[in-house]
Structure formats: structure tokens, C-alpha cells
Design goal:
Blueprint (H helix, E strand, L loop, with lengths): L4 H7 L1 H5 L4 H9 L9 H6 L4 H11 L4 E6 L6 H15 L3 E6 L5 H7 L3 E4 L9 H12 L3 E5 H4 L12 E6 L3 H6 L6 H4 L5 E4 L2 H9 L8 E2 L11 H6 L3 E6 L8 H8 L4 H4 L2 E6 L5
Parallel strand pairs: 1-2, 1-4, 2-3, 4-5, 5-6, 6-7, 8-9
Length: about 280
């Protein structure tokens, strides 16, 4: 396998910012995170061409087309929420292309949902002017671009002058903001968006605390579809079934949930069935 270190830096701007060895990072972490090795020729094939833009123009003949930019294509909460949004948009007659900064296993689910996806190496825009112009032309062919989570949000700086509706969707809480290397820049980045969505009042409160402006933010809540249980399932369990999905770690608060259950009466506990789903992070 031919490995391109420059390409890995494009796909993983976090690795580039920390000046880490790209091959060693791929061996130690990237493989387990679903990253794929790319050769120089394969990366060249990912560059935007006229056919890609023509494809978007053809889609626009049937209605609005939105570019959904995810920071990665992992099987985690925020990318999956964006996929669900794309599916809902399709039902409403709005076509979308699922773009990502970092490839991953979610690409298969995107394809099975009948959606298009593309690796969009925006992290390379500050290094290659021709490359930057290609991506800008591609983005300009859409009616709107949505940046998913604060990880993708800073890339709006590269397209701030483009005449396209720019939106972002903030899922992050205080922990996510505190870990961002752009923590001091959000006050200047927020005004670059035409619309800012948040996943609830908590996320809104945190996001506003990093803004020096009177920024308007709208709630865009996500969830999962309710499914009618069959009679057999109903007989097996008469109470309430709850699912807590997410990585199992301190910041997700699974320990707080378990401790709170101790406060419930025994007969109430017997009516609950709780599933904690997710991989553990040390």
C-alpha cells in the first residue's frame, strides 16, 4: 500500500496542527478509527472536476440541493444525526450531498440510503490555491452548505466570500468547546453564518457564551423514530424502555444515570428497561 503523508494531513487537520508524524498516527490510531490509506494518485482522483459540478447542476433541475459537511464519517452521534437529517430532507424533496473531511464506515450507510457522498479536503485549502479554487467552485454550485458541529465550523473562513447560504448545526456542550483549538475564534466565526442551529437550549446557552455578538440561534432537534412494538414484545415488558446511546465515558454521564437509579423506588425500577449502548473510551 502506498501511503501519502500529505494526503493524511489533508484528511486529518488535527494531526497536521499538532505536527505529528502522519504514518505513525495512522498506524497507532487511524486504522482503529476507520481511516484508509490513500496514495498520491488516489488523492488526485478526489479533486473536484467539471463532472462533479455538472452532477450538482443536474440535481438542481429537480429542486434545492444542500451540501452537508461532516467533520468525519464515523458511526458516532453527530455524523449519524446529519445522515438522518439528509434522509428527512430527501423525503421533503430537497436533495443533498453528504461531504466529509475524514472518511469512515458511515459511508456505506449513506450509500444505502440512496445519498451521494464525497470526501472534501478543505484542510488543504490554505496550502494550495488551485485546490482551493476547485473546492470553492464546487461549493458555489449548491444552494446551501451546512457545517455539522463546531469541528467543521471553522472551515467557513475559507468560503466567507462565496454567495451561498451558510448554516451550521451545533451539537456541542461545554466539553466540546473547551477542547477546540479554535475556542478563541468562535466569536468572530459565528457572524459568518446566515443561520445557526443548535440541538437544544443547553447547546444554545453554551454556544452563546462564546459569542460577543447578539447572535440568533434556532433549535433544530433530532431524535429517533418511534416504532410500534408487536404484541409479544408488549407482553414481555409493560414498562418504559429507554436507550442511552453514545461513547461510554465520564463526560457522557452514564455514571450519573446509574447513581440516580438508586433514588427510585423498587416498584418503579421494575417498570424500567434501560440500554446503555456505545464503545468505551479509556
Amino acid at each position: 500500500v502506498v501511503f501519502s503523508g500529505k494526503g493524511y494531513y489533508w484528511l486529518r487537520p488535527d494531526v497536521r496542527k499538532q505536527d505529528l508524524n502522519p504514518l505513525m498516527h495512522f498506524i497507532d490510531y487511524g486504522c482503529r478509527e476507520g481511516m484508509k490509506p490513500y496514495s498520491v494518485s488516489e488523492l488526485e482522483a478526489l479533486r473536484i472536476n467539471d463532472d462533479a459540478i455538472a452532477e450538482v447542476e443536474e440535481m438542481k433541475k429537480h429542486g434545492k440541493v444542500v451540501l452537508l459537511l461532516s467533520h468525519e464519517m464515523s458511526l458516532t452521534g453527530a455524523p449519524r444525526a446529519l445522515l438522518n437529517l439528509a434522509i428527512i430532507l430527501k423525503k421533503l424533496g430537497v436533495e443533498s450531498v453528504f461531504a466529509t473531511l475524514t472518511p469512515g464506515d458511515l459511508e456505506g450507510e449513506v450509500e444505502r440510503a440512496g445519498l451521494k457522498s464525497r470526501i472534501l479536503m478543505m484542510s488543504g485549502m490554505d496550502k494550495d490555491s488551485d485546490f482551493a479554487e476547485e473546492i470553492k467552485r464546487y461549493i458555489s454550485s449548491f444552494d446551501m452548505i451546512l457545517f455539522n458541529t463546531i469541528v467543521a465550523l471553522p472551515y467557513v473562513e475559507y468560503i466567507k466570500d462565496l454567495e451561498i447560504t451558510k448554516a451550521c448545526w451545533i451539537h456541542d456542550g461545554s466539553y466540546g468547546f473547551s477542547c477546540s483549538p479554535y475556542i478563541s475564534q468562535f466569536a468572530n466565526l459565528f457572524p459568518l453564518f446566515d443561520t445557526i442551529f443548535v440541538v437544544g437550549d443547553y447547546a444554545k446557552t453554551i454556544a452563546l457564551s462564546f459569542s460577543n455578538y447578539d447572535i440568533e440561534m434556532d433549535n433544530l432537534i433530532y431524535g429517533i423514530d418511534d416504532h410500534q412494538r408487536d404484541e409479544r414484545q408488549h407482553e414481555e415488558h409493560e414498562g418504559v424502555v429507554m436507550v442511552l446511546a453514545g461513547t461510554v465515558e465520564e463526560r457522557k454521564g452514564q455514571d450519573i444515570l446509574l447513581e440516580s437509579l438508586r433514588l427510585l423506588k423498587h416498584d418503579l425500577l421494575q417498570q424500567l428497561r434501560i440500554y446503555i449502548i456505545g464503545k468505551t473510551i479509556n
